[in-house]
Amino acid sequence: MNLQNLFDILKPYFWGIGAVVAGYIFGVLVHALIWKLYRKFSKKSETIFFKILNQKWYKASRYIIISIFIFFGLKQVYSETPDLFYEILYYVVSISLFISIIYGSIKLVYVIEEIILHHYEINVKDNLRARQVYTQVMILRRIAIVFIFILAIGGFALSFDSLRKLGTGILASAGIIGLVIGLAAQKILGNLLAGIQIAITQPIRLDDVVIVENEWGRIEEITLTYAVVRIWDLRRLVLPISYFIEKPFQNWTRVSADILGTVYLYVDYNIPVESIRKELTKILESSDKWDKKVNSVQITNTTEKAIELRALMSAGDASLAWDLRCEVREKLVNFIKKNYPNSLPHSRVILNKQ
Length: 354
Hints:
By secondary structure, the protein is an alpha+beta fold. It is 60% helix and 16% strand. Helix 4 packs antiparallel against helix 5 and helix 7 packs across helix 8.
């Protein structure tokens, strides 16, 4: 076999390989040209959209454009390429194109998410609006990614005759399969719907202070199927997302982060309450945790042995309120021990002489 015969045998295969190589080269050149024009245009604009898109979507757009050029380049040499070799190339290139489109679409979702969240800062004291937006965007981003995968898989299956026939066979028994899947996935679908409902109504948001299952903590993560609560001692409580739709729980930051703190003291009846009020005011005014809104001391209960004093104070958020309560409790107890030791709770015994 001479070189001419070998070339004649391999020539049909060169058409397919050449189409792939040419599509790649043209894709790189076209992408470079488009991106150069885009960057030139975006420099004139200070819009954050162009800046983030330039940073985050460069590679994804490159993969998509190159895959498109290779795909259509391969279409042009269909009649010149051996059937089996063409089918192999076609399947590989089609899969690459679908993967690049899925990757690009997901990256675009993340770009949109970053553009929206860029205007909101969650690591500040007054972050209620930011937490609302973060929660909605995070859940909707996950929903969008799920739909992208569903649409991509459906489009991929319809692109090939063999898979289309398989899909037709599955649809023929869709009634039974749908019933089985519906029963099996009832909990999953319930959680998904609960996740969508939480994104819209927002009974909880990221960084909300909540009490669930008798535990105090903050909402650390919200997904379509579960939420993670970071408990005060750094444990994590993982709950199905439907929990926050079906069961009662406390949300201390639903409307605002402001919260009232209470300190209870049990003292003797002879305690001068007005002195306790003055001391509480002195303690609060010297503390940087007090927000200067609420300051009160009241007798809230009496028993045969003692009276119950409630010191009420306010703080900017739950963490500050906890620290302020501990500070006030400690200083009031020391104040009573130092100035009114006889007013601490004690039992009286009266002895009658016979």
